[in-house]
Structures are given as structure tokens and as C-alpha cells.
Amino acid sequence: xxxxxxxxxxxxxxxxxxxxxxLLLEGISETAADAxxxxxxxxxxxxxxxxxxxxxxxxxEEVHFLGIRSRTQLxxxxxxxxxxLVAIGCYCIGTNQVATAVARRRGVPVFNAPYSNTRSxxxxxxxxxxxxxxxxxxxxxxCHRGEWFKTAAGSHExxxxxxxxxxxxxxxxxxxxxxxxxxxxxIYHDVVSRLTLGNAESAQSLGDLLGRSxxxxxxxxxxxxxxxxxxxxxxxxxxxGAVLLNASRGQVVDxxxxxxxxxxxxLAGAAVDVFPEEPKxxxxxxxxxxxxxxxxxxxxxxxxxTEEAQAGIGREVTEKLLRYSDDGSTLSAVDFPExxxxxxxxxxxxxxxxxxxxxxxxxxxxxxxxxxxxIDAQYLQTLNDVGYVVMDVAAERGAASALMDExxxxxxxxxxxxxx
Length: 420
Ligand code: NAI
Fold this sequence. Notes:
Elements: E1 21-24, H1 30-38, E2 43-46, H2 53-60, E3 65-68, H3 76-81, E4 87-90, H4 100-105, E5 110-111, H5 118-133, H6 136-144, E6 162-166, H7 170-181, E7 185-189, E8 201-202, H8 206-212, E9 215-218, H9 232-237, E10 243-246, H10 255-263, E11 269-272, E12 296-298, H11 307-327, E13 348-355, H12 360-370, E14 374-383, E15 386-394, H13 397-408, E16 413-419
Parallel strand pairs: 1-2, 1-3, 3-4, 4-5, 6-7, 6-9, 7-8, 9-10, 10-11, 11-12
Antiparallel strand pairs: 13-15, 13-16, 14-15
Helix pairs in contact: 1-11, 5-7
The chain binds 1,4-dihydronicotinamide adenine dinucleotide.
């Protein structure tokens, strides 16, 4: 049930935008605040660091829209202190820092930006492929040691070589497009059928791809099925002198086996951006079986870390929050019923988040049916224990507000608001 002591949230009374409070933590890109301002929101507070404990709890008390990155922990207690919260924006990829099931049960959707850094990862991968084909990492290390190894042996152009993309999703397919611009032949392996871009071709199997590729690049998600996807047996299937790139997830490659292949010289090099265990903070110590190998490029999980990606994330997440605030759309929300809506115009739009249990929809329809309001459109979606219904009703402001009050009083209501 909705907590009777909960003060009204903006949508509940269709607040003017100038009264909606936005808190952006952790130095989120200025593009986020700009997008809010352009949409008419003016009460925006920006904090450059993460908040914790009591400081976080008291900061959240009056906030309607909250933006965080990966360091702010929104656990049950934090969410309970955010009594006016309407939605959360994670200005990053992951949402593990948020108790999303608790947020859902409080009727608060969570949004993130899973794809704004796709291009950044793809560019790094292409750059690394060229470096590895030319043997630049080991030549660079030698120069730093005061050694001069000028030779063309083992140094190759990317043009005409075969790139094998494992996981042909957002990033993998972008890498393929960029690689073709360099004149590479692109083959890929995926577990589902994918739209092939450019001249890329689907390999018959992972083994087929490994046996044909001069450069293998991994772009699969972290799943039980992708753990050690590149184990000793798969590494052994790669061509002699090939190179391996992993900017996906750390647990996808058996690093001890990879070290063996690199030390023996059977594989020419590797570039690794992600590790099974990564330090939590910048500046912390780092260890890996690959440390100390001249022919390996190691980077601290920065594949997607560019200013352009951050700016894109700022815009993307704010746009999602604005769509929810202004229209009620929850499209691409994480762990929340996804309802895609046309822009809100004309009618009063009633938004109702409720416990997903038998009878609740008929109770809602009955409330509307008893009134003189006509439902012009209705959208419903459920996810696990929560349902979200949006109704456009032809009703005067007063009548729509009265309807909303009745809906808010229904047993099982988690959150309800009306947009005029
Ligand atoms: P995506 O979900 O668009 O694509 C992943 C693809 O892998 C899908 O097409 C899926 O069907 C496929 N796949 C799943 N299991 C597979 C298997 N066993 N064999 C072959 N294909 C399989 O994901 P996206 O956005 O392209 O990201 C890929 C990876 O990159 C993710 O692990 C993500 O965490 C990581 N990433 C790393 C970054 C970095 O900074 N290094 C930044 C952004 C993402």
C-alpha cells in the first residue's frame, strides 16, 4: 500500500517543472543538467562526489529525480529515505549499486545508458588491433629499455586480415563496421541470429571463427555461459601468430592459459581491458597473470571511458527521466514494467503503479467506470510483483484529480500520479 504519510510527488499533483527537485551526484556530465534546464526544470543540484550514510539519506529527502553513477549505493534504507523520489537515473552502464527490486516495489523506475559508450569501446579495439598487428607493444617496451629492434618481421597491415568478432551485438557490430573501413575481412560468431552489417559474414561456429581469424575480439555479456568462453582449448584453436582482444568481461578469458600461449610465442599478442577481479578505486593496486608481458596491452577497464561517452550518457539518461516525468513512459527501464507511450497531449493521463495481483485491474476499471470519464487509451505492463497501467481519460482537471484520489486509495497501490 502507499504510505499515507508520503508527501506528494510532482506527478501526483502535476507539479510545475520549476518545483521539481533534481539531484545529480558524482560529477555527472554537464549535458545532463543542460537537458533538464532546456526542458524547463530549474531546481537542479549538482554534487561532484558520491554521498554515503546519513549525508545521502538527508540529501534524498526532498528529491524527486536522482542521478547517480556507480559509487552511490542505493540500498533499501537509502530508498526508504527518498520518500518523494519519482525516478532514478544511473548515468552509467551498470545498475548493481541500486536495489532495483526495492525501487520497483516503491513504484520508482530506474534508467541507465547501456549503449552510449559503444563507439568508444569499438575505437579502442580497432586501435589495439593495429598496434598488436604491428608488434608495437613489445617494440615500445624495448625502446623504453634503451633497445632498438628495427625490423619488419612479424609486423602486419590490418588491410586484408580477418577479424573474428565473438558476440555481434552493439559493440561487436560497430567494431566490424570500423574494421571494414580499414580493409579487414569480418566474420562473427553469435548465439542468436543478428542483422549482418556491411560485408561481414557469420562463421559456422566459434571454432570455425577461431581457426580463420588473425584478430579475435570478444564482445559477449557476462553470463554463466560466457565464463571461460576462451579457455585453454579455445585459445589452442586460434591461428598461430593471431592476437586476442578482450574488452568485454573479465571472466570470459582464462588468463593463465592465455599467458602460456603468449609466453610460448604461439599467439603474437593480446589486449585486455577487463579482468576477473578489478580494483574498486582509481589508484588502487592491480595484479594479473598478464602483468610483465611485453606483447600485451593492459588497460584499466577504460574501453567506454571517454568524455564523449560521458556526455552521451548525460543526455541519454536525462531524456529517459524526462520522458517518464512528462509522459510516463518507462521504455528501457531496468527491472520495472516497460510501457512505451505516445507523448502526452490533451487528455488527463493517469499513471498507476500497483502490486501485480488478481483483481487490481478490475478495481481500477471499476473506479473509472463509475465516473463519467471515458478512457481514450490504456497501456498496461507487469513485471514480477509490480504492474503499471497508464490511462488517457477525457475528463476535466477536477474530475481527473478526483479519479486519481480514488485510484490512490485502492488496496495494492504503490504509486499514482496524474499528468494534465
Ligand atoms: P550486446 O548485448 O549488445 O551484445 C552482446 C552479444 O553477445 C549479443 O549479440 C549476444 O547474443 C552475444 N552472445 C551472448 N552469449 C554469447 C556466446 N556465448 N557466444 C557468442 N555470442 C554471445 O552487448 P554490448 O553492448 O555489445 O556489450 C558487449 C560487452 O562489452 C558486455 O560484456 C559489456 O559489459 C562490455 N562493455 C565493456 C566496456 C568497457 O569499458 N570495456 C564498456 C561497455 C560494454
